[in-house]
Amino acid sequence: MSSQPNAQKLVYLDHSATTPVRPEVLAAMLPYFAGKFGNPSSVHAWGDEARKAIDDGREKVSSLIGASPDEVIFTSGGTEADNLAIRGVAHARKAYGNHLITSQIEHHAVLHTFEALQKEGFRVTFVPCDKHGLIDPDDIRRAITKDTILISIMHGQNEVGTIEPIGEIGEIARSHGVLFHSDAVQSAGKVPISVGDLNVDLLTLSSHKIYGPKGVGGLFVRKGLRLAPQATGGAHENRLRAGTENVPGIVGFGEACRLAKAELPEESKRLIELRDKLIAGFLREIPDVDLNGHPILRLPHNVNISVKYLEGEAMLLNLDRMGVAASSGSACTSGSLEPSHVLLAMGLSHETAHGSLRFSLGSSNTAEDIDYVLEILPPIVKKLRSMSAFGPGSSF
Amino acid sequence: MSSQPNAQKLVYLDHSATTPVRPEVLAAMLPYFAGKFGNPSSVHAWGDEARKAIDDGREKVSSLIGASPDEVIFTSGGTEADNLAIRGVAHARKAYGNHLITSQIEHHAVLHTFEALQKEGFRVTFVPCDKHGLIDPDDIRRAITKDTILISIMHGQNEVGTIEPIGEIGEIARSHGVLFHSDAVQSAGKVPISVGDLNVDLLTLSSHKIYGPKGVGGLFVRKGLRLAPQATGGAHENRLRAGTENVPGIVGFGEACRLAKAELPEESKRLIELRDKLIAGFLREIPDVDLNGHPILRLPHNVNISVKYLEGEAMLLNLDRMGVAASSGSACTSGSLEPSHVLLAMGLSHETAHGSLRFSLGSSNTAEDIDYVLEILPPIVKKLRSMSAFGPGSSF
Amino acid sequence: MYNDKVMDHFFNPRNVGELENPDGVGQVGNPVCGDVMRITLRINDNRIEDIKFRTFGCGAAIATSSMVTEMVKGLTLEEAMQISNKEVAEALGGLPTQKLHCSNLAAEAVHAAIKDYRQKKGLD
Amino acid sequence: MYNDKVMDHFFNPRNVGELENPDGVGQVGNPVCGDVMRITLRINDNRIEDIKFRTFGCGAAIATSSMVTEMVKGLTLEEAMQISNKEVAEALGGLPTQKLHCSNLAAEAVHAAIKDYRQKKGLD
Ligand SMILES: Cc1ncc(COP(=O)(O)O)c(C=O)c1O
Ligand SMILES: Cc1ncc(COP(=O)(O)O)c(C=O)c1O
After folding, report:
1. Do residue A159 and residue A246 come from a single domain?
2. Is residue D124 part of a domain?
3. Does A332 touch chain C (CB under 8 A)?
4. Distance from CA of A168 to the nearest CA of B (A)
5. For a pocket test of ligand 2, which of B21, B113, B209 has the largest count of ligand atoms closer than 8 A to its C-beta?
6. Among candidate residues A229, A260, A291, the one where a domain is terminated
7. Which residues of D touch B338 (CB under 8 A)?
């Protein structure tokens, strides 16, 4: 981390963007770079060793979500897993219907993939959410037609932290004979997930969000389900995903899943305490602040607020100078013109959406980190508001 | 590496399958797992640091092939880069024509991708090769029609090591206004490559074949060329390849390219000497052995022989027990029924193709390794031949 | 992302605020895009005697606002009308590409304030 | 890939070779697939008195060939005809899935050799 001259402290609160690799995970990976570096497809000792390593990783990843090992396909990350699930079902089952259902608040990896399928001729229903970012299972039920072949609804919303009623939606999908995918990139390792209980047929995971390495993700594919592969080549990953396996990445992902599973009950309790302390502090210390996302059905590590009359990037730059890493739903941080589609779908005005900040907590955070943020953000807001074109009295 | 009880020595001769990560490369990567772990898209110091790291990686990778940094897109490996190049051009330019040209001896990542495009309705010409695995540029020229939108011919053949006349084919493609892709996974870092001299528009690279980490590859995309992205999501990699960047992987790939470039002239000379010693030794020590691939236009690290009357896997298992890692073009090693499509395209009989062995050399190999292999393979061959159903006198 | 000069103008913005009874007021931008700038001017003898800004927006929006106030203070109205958004970005040593559009409107805000002044005076 | 028993039969194959003047010869497999097995038998009193094999093929092909020679030596022809490819694989403690088809033909080779013997003797 490059030094921040004004920072009394470095506080990373952007764990939904990415997390550091845990020391235990890195230690598990290290032997596979130079010593045990074989290609799992090779017929010799180096190859055997690598094959065993990915089998072991598959076992650990599947165990986090209550799947069996042969139901997990390794990919290069959450984005690729989302693409494989959605395109894979759409292309494999287009003979059965051309209607797809998703929501307005999915991650871009899901949303843009459905938009691409629209251009291919599929009909897509984007169901809305309520002001807390919650999707109504009845909206899904009503959207299903005899042509519907896939429903994709995320498990935990990445920006505002709302946990969606996946179990209920899964039952609806199952009872209508429609395949069901859920993006659980933000939830896995944070809240308990069982693919059996949830009635999902496909579930997306990403390693770098749970203290595993970047460059590896996983897709749960229920036994017997056939997908159209999206990358063709060698006969890797049950012929669903060609390309030499990222062995150290898979080993690290496996170890990250094992640790997440073991520590989940205690760690999620700890994060919820920190989360609620931060939310209460913001609402108390800063005027004209709203909490975004659901007050109760919420990921343990997510805090999202709108700071009225301000734009997100300006706050992020000030936080950064004080050593604090966060993120924002403002368009300015993404290079697009529109602010977060999620906040807009929840009914926020463009101006308010531009002024959103997300603080996502993780294993390194302590109560002191929370105190520090609560100490530095109020004066930043005050200073920026003093130069804003908007304010309580403005036409805003 | 698990211990091999009978081995006096461990000799890895499967560098075309994968290579160990070099210590310098691992050292370059290490800071990016836990310390500098940010997401390059983030607006804070952790993000800036990660962004700089991938910019630096892009600079080093592009420099290996004489491209400019903004012409390199990072992928999860060679397979994904091949898919993106071929599907990306086919889908972006189908309005201009539906004819594609490739060869019969491409890697499966290319071959199966063209076969998938055939199913989508594209017409594909698979040009043949001669008995040395060499492709005739005139065959390409003759195959071009006014509907041709893409030619893809590999640079160095991964099984038999033949180096194809890419520069000549590039000129033909250019003069006909057809885009040209080349898979240089096996050649990059082994022989000098300049995308300018070769007249290629797209070129595939893979990190784990040149002492970089698995899980990362690169695609050169000539400036101004538009591709249809194959994975949709965030606006990463110039909107061509969505997904959080594999930062440590990219850093490692960059360092591997930098080292490969610096050491190429000397290392390729060294490898050619070892290669020629091994080839000469095999031809001298074992009766009924043929060299596969071109005798002169050959990758510095490739040795491929056919050992008559024997099947490859049986030899590999014996070599493995003696600590030697190699690979084979036999179907038995791949779980398919047909032996290597490359050896068959070169005109080998099925039986002879089954008996092929590939020894691919790398940085750790010494003259003593070669001596050891030349000492142990002849008795293995003798023993296996004594139990083979075939022999010089057989109906074979 | 931003260079040091941009960061300096962002963290230490010049001429922040609103002039009382200004001679001209200009507001440009669109809250939808996340950038709105308001410029107030004091004009004396056809020259910009004082200028202040208030901006809702990102780092680039605030830095360009601050920069333009320094650039035009003391200029004649005709001179100030010549200053373009592009020159403001150049004076800052450049901006990231994605910031060159909506966040770089400060010169336009000055022009709008000058026009407002001229209109009020019946000069237009 | 292979278990220890398969490896043992592969590296230390039993009954390798070709009997001189055999009573029955069976050859199965296809060089296209990479597996060809030749079994030679010595029959005495309706029993397999001696058996040898020669195999062109992979580890599984050689190991199953070796295994089957041990399994059928001393059996009556009727008993030997009952042994299936599947039982040979089981006797070896199992084979990788992709090896269960073309590389597991050893019992068939024995059956072919017995048929050859019967044909030659006019017993069929
Ligand atoms: C909900 C969700 N889905 C998908 C992704 C994409 O995952 P990855 O970064 O591994 O491609 C992310 C993270 O960016 C996410 O938060
Ligand atoms: C010529 C060639 N192309 C493509 C690939 C695939 O590359 P990767 O293993 O990085 O997916 C390989 C290696 O297997 C190769 O040798």
Report:
1. yes
2. no
3. yes
4. 27
5. B209
6. A260
7. 32
Tell me, yes or no, whether B234 and B278 share the same domain: no
Q: Is the sign of the CA dihedral D74, D79, D81, D86 positive or negative?
A: negative
- 């996302």: which residue's tokens? A293
- Which tens digits make up the pLDDT trace of A241-291? 999 999 999 999 999 999 999 999 999 999 999 999 999 999 999 999 999
E strands, chain C, in order? 24-30, 35-44, 47-56
Q: Do B390 and D57 touch (CB under 8 A)?
A: no
Asked if B320 reaches chain D (Cβ–Cβ under 8 Å), the answer is no
Chain A residues with CB-CB distance to C104 below 8 A: none
Ligand 1 atom closest to Cα of A156? 1
Mutate to test the pocket of ligand 2, among B107, B181, B246, B302 (most ligand atoms within 8 A of CB): B107
B61 lies in which domain range? Answer: 23-260
Q: Which residues pair with A150 in a beta bridge?
A: A100, A179
Domain boundary at A260, A289, A323, which? A260
Q: Let me know: does D41 contact D67? Beta carbons within 8 Å.
A: no
ipTM value: 0.94
Quote the CA–CA distance of B72 and B75 in Å, as a whole number: 10
Helix axis angle, D59-72 to D106-121, nearest 10°: 50
The tokens of B176 are what?
A: 């006909």
Strand boundaries in chain B, DSSP class E: 11-12, 72-75, 99-103, 123-127, 148-152, 179-183, 202-206, 217-221, 289-291, 302-307, 324-325, 327-328, 356-360
Instruction: Name every chain A residue with its beta carbon within 8 A of the beta carbon of C100.
Output: none
Which residue among C55, C59, C99 sits closest to A387, beta carbon to beta carbon? Answer: C55
Count of domains for chain D: 1
User: In chain B, how many domains are there?
Assistant: 2
Ligand 1 atom closest to the Cα of residue A154 is 1
Q: Do the Cβ atoms of B46 and A185 come closer than 8 Å?
A: no
Positive or negative torsion for Cα B32, B37, B39, B42: negative
* Per-residue model confidence as pLDDT tens for chain B (396 residues): 444 666 779 999 999 999 999 999 999 999 999 999 999 999 999 999 999 999 999 999 999 999 999 999 999 999 999 999 999 999 999 999 999 999 999 999 999 999 999 999 999 999 999 999 999 999 999 999 999 999 999 999 999 999 999 999 999 999 999 999 999 999 999 999 999 999 999 999 999 999 999 999 999 999 999 999 999 998 898 889 999 999 999 999 999 999 999 999 999 999 999 999 999 999 999 999 999 999 999 999 999 999 999 999 999 999 999 999 999 987 665 556 678 999 999 999 999 999 999 999 999 999 999 999 999 999 999 999 999 999 886 654
What's the CATH number where B363 sits?
3.90.1150.10
pTM beyond 0.90: yes
